[in-house]
Design a protein that fits this description.
The complex is a heterotrimer of chains A (199), B (731) and C (158). By secondary structure, chain A is mostly helical. Chain A has 8 helices and 2 strands. Chain A is globular and about 60 Å long. Chain B has a 7-stranded mixed sheet with strand order 9-10-7-17-14-15-16. A 5-stranded mixed sheet of chain B has the order 12-20-19-18-13. In chain B, strands 21-22-23-26 form a 4-stranded mixed sheet, with helices on both faces. Chain B is globular, with a radius of gyration of 27 Å. With 158 residues, chain C is of the alpha+beta class. Chain C contains 5 helices and 5 strands; from the N terminus they run E-E-H-E-E-E-H-H-H-H. The chains are: A mainly alpha (199), B alpha+beta (731), C alpha+beta (158). Chains in contact: A-B, A-C, B-C. At the B-C interface, helix 7, helix 9 and helix 18 of B face helix 1, helix 2, helix 3, helix 4 and helix 5 of C.
């Protein structure tokens, strides 16, 4: 069963890569927008719409505030106690995120934790933004920490703080798709041109 | 006279005590009984809502119950009142030093225990410790001094009148001896008669600023609190209580808990299950493995609480009736105003949780705790584990925040039962969640006020109807209930209309809630002053008068009202009431009175992005004679902060028969970032020392609400004010 | 699990569950009672202490993370009782505590604050310490931290 779980996504990825390689070749043959390119974009957009549901889930967007205060919990209340991003996005000079949040969820207090617990930089703030704005910010190298789409996918599929979303601890919901599906969707989005909605 | 600690000193029998042996009576309940016990005629209810002097609850003033002379010539004062931050140890030491003829720093104050020291039947509360013992402590100290002289006179064979005392030394001619040396040599003591007290004009300490005696230990973080108790072989408990209001245990599977690492015992009782383990971590983790099902009544919520506590529902009790207010019922009359106010359930949220270390050995129980009413805990444990009271010694440490929370519900019986089960001392605390969910609350209130202006713009009639829940009468006998009628001592306290208005009426409606409500710092004063003083503001506005002058206009030359007028006048001048307000600032005033202690406050507020910010509070207190000025200042500052916190943010909600707050993230309290500038003015308007801890709680909420009206024109009539403003803006 | 760390510069070993909060290790195993329990969920700051110089709320800090680290508790803030840390001296001078229970946590936060911001304004203090006090000692805490800043500078001439 476990093997199958790993095998299926790999199969899906191999299949997707193969498909996109094939598409690339055919797209060179004509000046008109190739229907298959459009189909790719559609696939990418479809994947992105799934990605958005994850980005907008409390586990992700709570620490991507557009202003300075992160959110907490599935109810997305403002983080109390005067918590703010601070100059380096790791909280204040005295009380840092790490004053309370550590490298893993605390089994005793249920305070959430993961490596390098911090708030996303302001330019990567998404909270309250429309979908296309989130998408634009995500791809804009001047705002996303200079990341190419490949870098983004790598970050979103392997960063330990991002992955915490699938191990959030008791009383906190996970993102709407499973981790394996998340990685598949990211790949699909990237391999089909990393398209984002324009309006 | 004892020169060493003797935990089980023999004591004489006190016949008067039998009258007060009932277990489980709350602070003011006990006080009421004491009061009735003293009073030949039952006073009118209205008399004691406002004017009664709370008795100390202490009947024993033998010197050896209060003092011990130590070999290093220091004197130990065994305080029957508990130090919970109010500075009472320092105040008591100052009073004792006036008659003992020793320097203040030679007096070490400790807590009396229920078996070593004077028994306190009332507990610590009601802002009454200094007031009620101001004379007694000096008398015991003076008696001790004279008793020492008697012993020295026998030793030296001189007349006691030639012996003088200074800095802990007795002198007669060329003979001298320290108190300690005398105590070592004396085997038989003859108690002296209580002498005349020295006149107040000779006070060396009282009235002058003194550093608090307990602060060095507190700054050095010495282990002085109940929770710091650490005994040999001590193990740790953790208890599972019902998460539902009124919940009872239906069934539980404790098999996993029993198997958990470090667990020594699992004790199943009717309403709780306790685990004892080698460490607190092991005990708490094991409790989480218990699968329990609870029986509880149908879904109960805040709306049900509000419905129960509504004017017109429950028992009606007259608090005050002067003249006639019949004309007020017709709100069509010109000059008539009617407004309703509400205050919510509130939590104490003291920082030290409920704590008991129980050491039960054979038929004796020694209990270490942080508690405002050790005698009540003693009685509760005695009946809880079926021990004789004389075999239960309750020793309280310094209390990490009282506020009324350490007067009633505790975990001492649980700790004693767990200790009995394992034969070792057991350290047991409430978790913070339990502190919120299994404690008790400041009762919510509903107020209907009516007022009538005459042609001159003065109030001719006013009526206050208060609805609130049962508090301190909880646990009293039906007879006492009949005598007292309703809880006008604490929840109803401050419900009367204090101003010189010819026609006045106050009534209270007592509702019954399915959970415990109880005393909370200044409880009745806090809610009732909010309602009455906001309404006075509304009447002033209707009359087109300045709110400060309007209040002064309704004071008379009667004692307390005259003092009220004086402090309002001083406050207005010092806080710059008539000076121009800075841009964006609103200013409000209110005044409250608590057993003749009067506090008035002017608050300044601004609103930033919808958030109320209190920028400045100037508070004046006339608590009569001041013992330690900086102690009074601390209490007023503290009460200002706590009342502001309750006024702006604090609220306990109930949902699905559960208390919503579980920790400080969903029970917001004021923090450093909310701190306004606080100015304290002290005015000694009467020679007697009066209460200080609670009175300054009274005027803060209405002063802030009135300031918000002054700034925005929005009349917020419910607490907490931030939620009221949010709701006002939504409408 | 056996853990080794330094408490107030003293090498210390304990045998505890690796997930036991550092607070209970310090209080119940090492028997230093100055660090207080307040909320158990890192919300009130009563349990604040320093781990390798950083402010940590020890009720929510598993013991295993302290392995090999330097822990400073309130008992180790001053060199000795006759030479108080500027924060503790200022706390006495201004007569800050009432019940006193939350104060060790506040003092540990204040000591860290002065390391980061040697000359704090009132707003610096208000915005950087979110401990909870119920007695209402807040106005005096603000005054004491500013006094401590002066004491500290006077005791460390440049």
């Amino acid at each position: 069963m476990k093997k199958l779980r790993i095998f299926l996504p790999i199969l899906a990825i191999v299949f997707t890569i193969g498909l996109s390689a094939f598409n690339d070749k055919t797209s060179l043959k004509t000046d008109k927008p190739d229907p298959s390119v459009l189909a790719d974009k559609e696939k990418s957009l479809k994947a992105f719409s799934t990605i958005l549901t994850v980005l907008k889930s409390p586990r992700c967007i709570n620490c991507h505030p557009t202003a300075d205060i992160p959110r907490q919990g599935d109810a997305q209340r403002m983080h109390p106690f005067g918590v703010s991003r601070g100059v380096a996005n790791i909280g204040g000079a005295v009380q840092k995120c790490g004053t309370c949040h550590h490298a893993e969820n605390n089994v005793y207090s249920n305070v959430p934790g993961a490596p390098h617990w911090s708030v996303a930089p302001k330019t990567m703030g998404w909270f309250g933004l429309p979908d296309n704005e989130i998408a634009k910010r995500l791809l804009d190298k001047t705002q996303n920490g200079g990341r190419s789409p490949q870098d983004l996918v790598k970050h979103m599929s392997s960063d330990s703080l991002v992955l915490w979303a699938w191990n959030p601890g008791e009383g906190r919901s996970k993102p709407p798709v499973e981790l394996e599906e998340w990685r598949t969707v990211l790949k699909e989005w990237l391999d089909n041109g990393a398209a984002i909605p324009t309006n | 006279m004892a020169t060493e600690k003797n935990d089980n000193q023999p004591k004489k029998k006190f016949s008067r005590r039998k009258f007060f042996t009932r277990a489980g009576i709350g602070l003011a309940g006990t006080m009421a009984l004491l009061y009735f016990g003293r009073s030949p005629i039952r006073r009118k209810i209205s008399d004691f809502t406002s004017e009664m002097d709370l008795p100390s609850g202490i009947l024993d003033f033998d010197t050896d119950l209060w003092f011990e002379i130590n070999p290093d010539n220091t004197i130990t004062l065994k305080s029957p009142k508990v130090e919970m931050g109010q500075g009472i140890f320092t105040g008591f030491a100052m009073l004792a030093a006036e008659e003992l003829d020793v320097d203040l720093d030679k007096i070490k104050v400790v807590h009396a225990t229920t078996l070593n020291g004077a028994a306190d039947l009332a507990g610590t509360g009601g802002s009454s410790s200094t007031t009620s013992l101001y004379k007694n402590i000096r008398e015991v100290a003076a008696t001790l001094r004279e008793t020492l002289k008697l012993a020295a006179s026998k030793l030296w064979n001189v007349d006691p009148s030639v012996i003088s005392t200074k800095e802990g030394v007795l002198t007669a001619g060329d003979k001298n001896m320290t108190y300690a040396d005398l105590a070592k040599q004396t085997t038989e003591w003859k108690a002296a008669k209580t002498p005349e007290l020295r006149p107040e004009s000779q006070f060396k300490y009282v009235g002058k600023e003194q550093k608090r005696l307990d602060l060095r230990d507190k700054v050095l973080a010495k282990p002085i609190y109940g929770i710091d108790t650490d005994l040999p072989n001590m193990v740790y408990g953790s208890v599972l209580y019902s998460p539902y209001i009124g919940g009872t245990l239906k069934k539980a599977d404790v098999s996993e808990a029993k198997k958990a690492a470090g667990v020594l015992a699992v004790v199943e009782e009717k309403d709780w299950i306790g685990v004892v383990a080698n460490t607190r971590f092991a005990a708490e983790m094991a409790v989480r493995k218990i699968k329990a099902e609870w029986d509880y009544k149908a879904k109960y919520a805040t709306k049900d609480v509000l419905e129960t506590i509504t004017v017109g529902k429950g028992n009606e009790v007259n608090v005050q009736k002067i003249g006639s207010v019949d004309g007020l019922l017709n709100t069509e009359n010109q000059g008539t105003l009617r407004s309703e106010y509400r205050t919510p359930l509130g939590a104490h949220a003291g920082m030290e949780p409920s704590i008991t270390v129980a050491d039960v050995v054979g038929d004796k129980a020694t209990i270490y705790t942080s508690f405002q009413m050790p005698t009540n805990m003693q009685a509760a444990i005695a009946s809880g584990i079926d021990f004789s009271k004389k075999n239960v010694d309750v020793r309280t440490g310094f209390v990490g925040g009282g506020f009324g929370r350490r007067a009633m519900k505790h975990n001492a019986i649980e700790a004693a039962k767990l200790s009995k089960a394992v034969g070792k001392p057991v350290h047991l605390i409430y978790t913070r969640q339990q502190e919120f969910q299994n404690g008790y609350f400041r009762p919510n209130t509903h107020h209907v006020l009516r007022g009538q202006l005459d042609a001159n713009g003065k109030v001719s009639a006013m009526q206050h109807e208060l609805a609130t829940a049962d508090m301190v009468l909880w646990g009293l006998s039906p007879l006492a209930m009949t005598v007292l009628g309703a809880d006008f001592i604490s929840a109803g306290h401050g419900s009367h209309i204090p101003y010189a208005i010819p026609n006045r009426k106050a009534t209270m409606w007592q509702g019954v809630l399915p959970f415990t409500t109880g005393i909370w710092r200044g409880v009745g004063m806090f809610a009732n002053t909010f309602a009455v003083e906001c309404f006075m503001d509304e009447m002033a506005q209707k009359a087109g008068k300045d709110p400060l002058q309007f209040r002064i206009d309704h004071c008379s030359e009667d004692d307390v009202l005259k003092r009220r007028k004086t402090i309002l006048t001083i406050l207005g001048e010092k806080a710059g009431w008539n000076t121009p307000k800075p841009e964006g600032i609103g200013r409000g005033i209110a005044v409250g009175e608590d057993r003749k202690s009067i506090s008035a406050a002017i608050a300044e507020v601004k609103i930033v992005e919808g958030q109320i910010k209190v920028t400045k509070v100037t508070q004046i207190i006339d608590a009569g004679k001041i013992v330690n000025p900086d102690g009074v200042r601390q209490q007023v500052e503290g009460a200002t902060m706590m009342a502001m916190s309750a006024a702006l943010y604090e609220e306990v909600q109930i949902e699905d028969s559960q208390v919503v707050p579980t920790n400080f993230h969903n029970y917001r309290v004021a923090m450093l970032m909310d701190t306004p500038q606080i100015e304290v003015i002290m005015h000694e308007g009467t020679p007697k020392p009066l209460g200080v801890g609670e009175p300054p709680m009274a005027p803060v909420a209405p002063a802030i609400a009135n300031a918000i009206f002054n700034l925005t024109g929005k009349r917020l009539r419910s607490l907490p004010l931030q939620a009221a403003l949010d709701n006002f803006d939504k409408k | 699990m056996k853990l080794n760390f330094f408490i107030n510069n003293k090498p210390t070993s304990v045998e505890v569950d690796p997930d036991m909060p550092l607070l209970w290790v310090v209080r119940d195993e090492v028997k230093m009672k100055g660090t207080k329990f307040g909320c158990g969920q890192a919300m009130c700051g009563a349990c604040s202490l320093h781990v390798d110089g950083e402010l940590v709320r020890s009720c929510s800090y598993p013991a295993k993370m302290a392995e090999g680290k330097k822990i400073t508790t309130i008992e180790g803030l001053s060199p000795d009782e006759n030479h108080l840390h500027p924060v503790q001296q200022a706390w006495l001078d201004i007569q800050v505590p009432q019940c006193g229970y939350c104060q060790p946590g506040f003092m540990m936060a204040a000591a860290k604050l002065l390391e980061e911001i040697p000359n704090p304004t009132e707003d610096d203090i208000k915005n950087n310490i979110s401990n909870i006090c119920r007695c209402g000692t807040h106005p005096r805490i603000i005054k004491a931290i500013q006094k401590a800043a002066i004491l500290k500078q006077n005791s460390n001439p440049k």
